[in-house]
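Researcher: Good morning. I'm working through a list of sequences from a screen, and I'd like to move beyond sequence-only analysis. For each chain I'm collecting a predicted structure so we can compare shapes side by side. This is the next one on the list. No need for commentary yet; just the structure.
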Amino acid sequence: MKQNLLLGIDLGTGGCKVTVTDTEGNLLSEASKEYPTIHPKPLFSEQNPEDWYAAFISCLREIGTNVNLKEVLAISLDASTHNAVLLDKEMKVIRPTIMWTDQRSVKEVEFLENGWGGDIFRIGYQKVAPTWTLPQMLWIKNNEPGNYAKIHKVMFVKDYIRFLLTGTWETDYIDAQGTLFFDLARSEWSADLCSLIGLPLRTLPPICNPTDITGRVTVDASKVTGLQEGTPVVCGTSDSAIEDYGAGAVRPGQCILKLATAGNVNVMTQIAHPNPQTLTYSHVIPGMWYTVAATSTAASSMRWFRDTFCGEELIRSKQAGISPYQLMEEQACKIPVGADGLFFHPYLMGERSPYWDSKLRASFTGATMAHKKGHFIRAVMEGVAFSLKDCFRLIEGMGLDVSEFILIGGGAKSNTWAQIICDVFGKKVSKPLLTDASYGSALLAGIGIGIFNDEMDAVKKCVRFEKNLTPDGANHEKYDKLFKYYREIHDNLKDIYHKIDN
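Model: Good morning. Structure tokens for this chain:
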């Protein structure tokens, strides 16, 4: 029997995830594929756009064994923001994309902040930092003038993949807000901000709504992907915005705790609350906003530890046909709260909130001969949880109301890690049944073609919760004490890291 399918595509920092649902939001099939991040120099972080498309095609082929891709009614996409894909007049990619985790543009940030920091914050609602597109592109102009001169069009991750599907060129206003080229009050590209680096406005894409249909699958794309020619493609938005939305965070006071490549503490608000120490974005729900405090390496810390120290687990996982993370979690859950005095600070790519310090470095402290691999794995989990708690201090300091905590992200699939987060915060935490950004994008596809009346209608009909977590009081008390030590370690090591960097 013919099915009516919705397809959501998430192009995250660590890999591509594709989700297929029916028109009632039920999960029918999903697939994921990692792609590499290149680090040509310390703190450099780049990706090749062809890897995104290859991963997307791989996911489609896997999904195509379970569902008929010709029955997809609509498609939508999301991706990490800040990451510019630069194309020349032949629409060829000029260079690898500098990712939001990249920290190379420290000097450019200093230059922009000293000269125009106040104006940038007033127009863009954000403080200048290496994570934004503006200083990244100034770095290219200063260090690769030949490549900068070739720029004909600027796209962003999801928009580039959508361009390959439809041949059209546009972005949504939320993704545009992640560039520091956007005037948030006027919801348009800012000529003043673009002029800071001499970027012509014509190189930036037209702005549309996340739910707008921007094109249809072309003949050529249909042949490559297996999708039906003419299938509507909805613009989509940033992964952070669609994750919040798809997890049911659609009311002021709801707070998302995200355990993905990055770690986020996102609070939904009725109005914008620009703050130099946080990020400010529009919500998928028209008129709403959300405030973000973000740690740069959350689940990516675990991926780094896996790839660097868990060769045995990788081999065993392939032999047994299970995830290496499952084998790692089995070791971590045997270790007591506090990892017997072992601490981890997840500053593998410097840090954003609450310190905005690109010179911070990751560290394990307190190691003894008694510590085994399981201690280090648990320390990574606890260190990321402490970093999220550190971020939440900003939210508390701003006086934003928080009435509910919702845990999402790939790391949240670990029961051990999820409980650690719950115990560190000492609050009840709910987990949606489906937490992937690609699920939110599938809902967005349905909104775009009228399956749902509007954004709220889709959430009411489709978003379901898996379970609620309750904190262990004794564990929370221990973590409160350990969190003070965690912060003291940061305070005592930060000056050393600055000296090392010089």
